[in-house]
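USER:
Class, as today's exercise, take the chain set out below, and explain how the chain folds.
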Amino acid sequence: MPARDIFHNAVKKGLEKEGWKITHDPLPVSFELGDMYIDLGAERILAAEREGEKIAVEIKSFFKTSAISEFHTALGQFINYRLALFEQEPDRTLYLAVPIDTYTSFFTIRLTGLTQLAQAIAKF
């Protein structure tokens, strides 16, 4: 299994504080590439609907010197994980957790095209 990101416990505690039940730590998925591990799997029961909402969260710190290199790595993992989840758990939504300063300084620039990319992948 891969090493945990430095923000792993903070993201986990944040999800729990918002009412999510951590169901997997990590969430294993298998595909033609082999076994993979998404950092967290969680669900929460929506009282009005009595149905659960399921998510998977990949956590990235972006501490290395090249944000674009880290972005490409995270994007590649995200695509692989999304494809595997689409096959195995199509009702689980995949998210990428990054520090807020990374989001505001990098993920909002046009080069990353994160909003459009995330929407396209989510509809996959």
The chain is about 40% helix and 30% strand. The chain has a mean pLDDT of 82. Helices lie at 8-17, 67-88, 100-107, 114-122.
